[in-house]
Amino acid sequence: MPTPTPTTLSGVHHLGDQTLSDWEVPKPEGTEYTTTFSLTAVPASADLILDVFNTDHNNPVLVNGNSVGILCINTIEGWKQCTIKIPGSALRVGSNTLTIQSKSRGGNYDDFMIRNIWVTPSSDAQPTTPTPTALSSVHHLGDQTLSDWEVPKSEGTEYTTTFSLTAVPASADLILDVFNTDHNNPVLVNGNSIGILCISTIKSWKQCTIKIPGSALRVGSNTLTIQSESRGGNYDDFIIRNIWVTPSSDAQPTTPTPTTECGTFWVGVQELWFDEHPESIIGKLQTFDFDNDGSEDRIVYTFEPEEVAEDLFLVRTIEFNKTDSELFEGKIVLKFENKGDKPIEYSHIEEIPKSFAESVDDLVFSIPPDEIIDPDPKVMWKGLRVGLGSMLAIFIADDYDDDLDSLTLYEWYAFILDGAVTECNKRSGTSRDYCLLLLAEEFKAAEPTYVCHEIENEDLKNLCLGRVTGDKKYCEKIKNEDLRKLCLGQEEEDEEEVTTTPSTAPTITIPPGVHHLGDQNFTDWEVQSPEGTEYTIPFSLATVPASADLTLNVFQTNYNNPVLVNGQGVGFLCIHTSESWVKCTISIPGSALQIGSNTLTIRAWRRGSNYDDFMIKP
To answer: What's the maximum distance between 2 C-alpha atoms anywhere in the chain?
Structure first.
């Protein structure tokens, strides 16, 4: 890899318009900083890397007078490393000029500091010219004619072009210039949503980079679609130009690794049930590892399309994206697609789960609802207009006004499962059981044994537990031969019979006594006042089994209350919303256990500022 060539920045620079006595450089040197760097060859792209301190605004970065992006937002008074991609089209052989500007809002410039600036060719970049897509002119999308624009008349509300790949990278960058983008305008590759255009509310060009996951790409021809979003029947008017797609700097050609797809196990289950009863499938889980570090950067759960009006289909998607703090922030996307032969007007009511937001005041809507039916939250859009053959998307996000709104991956899995289990419970009988079984398999990484215990059919419950925990003792309990073989991994009917000795899973119980967890007093409860929001006890094991069963009784559990062993999440308490006692069993995988002393922790889950109140006893 080429040796990075640092720019001539040897100190700390304060940009802005205020003197801040407690800063490393109290007095600003101005609202713009310029330096130069030199290149002997032009790479496909380069990385601008620097440290930023207290950046609150969208502060522009320019190379040779061309916008290449904005400084990373870092609203705390601490240093944060920031990387900005510089396309090769903005670079030249010899001397190049780098400019960083402080953004003004209402006459007040952003005050921030920068240090340690250097520019280096991206890790896999060789001197080359990126291959652009077949976009040779400027395109105006929207529904208005604007006489002072470069292209006054809009060509429609959707633009489609194609690009070709000889190999599929782990990820690619879509780079284009945008002008006057006000709405959340969707971008799709091969029909899959990959994000929205950057917002640029001023009438000037801004370069925009959108990451395309490798799972959305394919060898050969690919289709790129950019859509204008409609709000209340009015489409966003904007212009695009200079579109091209290039493999991300760290991406190597690879075959995309499918996420939780139906492998050998599900082929067998499908033959038994899903092929004839597709109503058991309610959605699909996808995870994305953009930086190839072995951990999820984005989680998407897409529910099956629902026809909400004649020829109008709604697809709900729950998306979570990793933040710089390694937590996840989420959003709900409602996509309405018109598959008919005429425009459709539709009024929609959406009830947002309280596990996502406690109140409508905690939410941000890309299209504000026309009516707040219930601040709990339940909202309504009136007269949504979806054009012929087009799509309307509504984004709902938490406003993230405190760190508590960003959750761990495990907690977001719990949120998705909560909604998905609710959908399964709309079904009945075997259809419901298979729906829960599929969910448990898809979310196996979260070890959702509580979902398995929701299954009524004993064979399917044991199949689920065998798959999730890996403990074959559950497989031996299955009476149906085909399901037992699936659980044991015996795919061929003539396979030699395997004799196993059912394992004896130890049972873990809590000491005598009734414990109330939560944050409220209930005068008619056996224990009126809560002892806190967490209950912890030790237990000891002489050996580590393949799995163990935690058994206890629960009283009025409404939320997904986590259960941890040795600090590792192993599942949730059973949901039981009535004021009565019910027995609950949670399977603990052997990987969470250890010889000697172990710790069991049960926590009351919080939604907004309210903890779940419940009682537990042996």
So the answer is: 81
Q: What is the mean pLDDT of residues 343-347?
A: 87
Q: Is the pTM of this model over 0.90?
A: no
The alpha carbon of 195 is separated from its chain's Cα centroid by a whole number of angstroms, namely 11
Residue carrying the six token digits 């400084």: 71
5-121, which class in CATH?
Answer: mainly beta
Gap between the Cα atoms of 494 and 122, Å rounded: 55
Q: Which stretch of 241-245, 380-384, 414-418 has the lowest confidence by average pLDDT?
A: 414-418
The architecture in CATH of the region 139-247 reads: Sandwich (2.60)
- The answer to whether the 139-247 and 507-617 domains have the same CATH topology is yes
Q: Determine the 3-state secondary structure of 497 from DSSP.
A: coil
Say if strands 230-231 and 234-235 run parallel, antiparallel, or are unpaired: antiparallel
Chain Cα centroid distance, residue 586: 27
d(CA 456, CA 432): 9
Extents of the domains making up the chain: 5-121, 139-247, 258-332+400-502, 507-617
Res 4 pLDDT > 60:
no
> Amino acid identity, residue 224?
L
The DSSP letter of residue 590 is G
- By CB neighbour count within 10 A (0-12 exposed, 13-18 middle, 19+ buried), where does 393 fall? buried
Q: What is the pLDDT of residues 552-596, one digit of tens each?
A: 999 988 777 888 888 877 777 887 767 888 888 888 888 788 888
Q: Kindly report which listed range (210-214, 258-262, 300-304, 435-439) carries the lowest average pLDDT score.
A: 258-262
**Domain boundaries 507-617, CATH class:** mainly beta
